[in-house]
Amino acid sequence: MILTRRTLLLGATATLAGCDRLGRNETVRDALFSAENFHRWAQRSLMARDALAQEFRPDQISPIFRANGTANPNTPAYKALWRGNFADWRLPVTGLVTRPLSLSLAQLQAMPPRTQITRHDCVEGWSAIGKWRGVPLKPILEAAGLHDNARYLVFRCADDMGGGRPYYESIDRFDAFHPQTILAYALNDRPLTVANGAPLRLRVERQLGYKQAKYLMGIEAVATLDGIGKGKGGYWEDHAGYDWYAGI
Amino acid sequence: MTPKATGTVRRHRLSTRLWHWLNAALLYILFTSGLGIFNAHPRLYWGQYGANFDAAWLELDRFPGWLTLPALYSLAMSRHWHLAAAPLFAFALLFYMLWSLANRHIVCDLAFRRADLAPRHIWQDIKDHARLRFPTGAAALHYNVLQKASYIGVIFLLLPLLILTGLTMAPGMNAAWPWLVDLFGGRQSARSLHFIAAFALVAFFLVHILMVLLAGPVNEVRSMITGRYRVPEERP
Fold this sequence. Notes:
The complex is a heterodimer.
Chain A: H1 2-24, H2 26-33, H3 35-46, H4 76-83, E1 90-95, E2 101-104, H5 105-110, E3 114-121, E4 127-136, H6 137-144, E5 152-160, E6 166-172, H7 173-176, E7 182-187, E8 190-191, E9 201-203, E10 216-222, H8 235-240
Parallel strand pairs in A: 1-10
Antiparallel strand pairs in A: 1-2, 3-4, 4-7, 5-6, 5-10, 7-8, 7-9
Chain B: E1 8-10, H1 14-38, E2 43-44, E3 58-59, H2 75-102, H3 105-110, H4 119-130, H5 145-168, H6 171-176, H7 178-184, H8 187-215, H9 217-225, E4 228-230
Antiparallel strand pairs in B: 1-4, 2-3
Helix pairs in contact in B: 1-2, 2-5, 5-8, 8-9
């Protein structure tokens, strides 16, 4: 039995090492990474375009909403904006649009808001429920006159992830025009704190936490993700190999 | 009614053999990559939400690298392995269920018969297992009641539970099929059940391997590869 157990253990370790090696093979990697396309296709085939993420009752809100990722961008430019209570902050909406916009926080807060109590699911596995208030992205894109060939919206952020590379994320039209996709300026009835992405963050409720870009500094409509960062559509997609489609 | 009970017989159908080995590979990948994903947040909760400030019912250290895929912690690669293997595993189970309905494997071999369920018979089977008295002759050509119960439990309860709780953790699936979250009482409950079910499956696997080793590993493994099985001689 000792021999058998040792053989089994050795076998298991060798198999795992084999899988590890396979995981570094280009063809195998491509196959593994392509599962994302299947999941995106399958999920979107199963859901109505406007199918809502679950919304919760006020008594279901997490006592403390865990802040994750950057807790404070801490750059001189961001600190200057923060000291001024974000009065000088503007959100440019540029790229493939007919009427580029530059929106102040006051302008955004004057638009018809949407409030939603939703669950934030981190890729790591934890979840927190919070009450978000913000402006739906759809009317903003309509006001800017989004071109038909604009397939993606890229969100530029204030937080420097190291080496002068700010955070960025992107979504496609399917999620951009979804009723729960909002630019949130309040969490749990209070203005967004710095830890949670002040002054404005994206909420894409049918996807994981790393898509919920914080510290928004600009929105750019593009036809392709080529040329944005390393071309995968987001900071973690480019630097850690996360899936662009984070519905799973 | 009983086929010849001596010599070598065809024991396992092609569908069973294919599914068995595909599962061996996929469940191995799913379990080890699953532990890698778990290591990103090794705490489990009940209910809709759960993060560091909330009460966990289980908090573990990270699983060691020799148990995880990849060995060096990478949440992204663990997810790629897991999410690539998961749909193959789920559809394989679905096809196996349909195929086994069509070729009458479920009805003929897996379903309990009236005689199986007699308390005396069940008790006898438990005693035989405890004494490691494995069936011989004609009795070795069909599943005994404990075997049936564990196979039925795994195929129709445990594996579907793993697949459905896995799907429940996907925020996209929550929008597509909101009833899934309700079924398990929340995303964090589903994550906990997914973890428990995975270890229940490991327990099944360990007993399964033990039984194969005790019953004659060469004959058992050969029967699962070629389908051919040498019938153990009847005890005098």
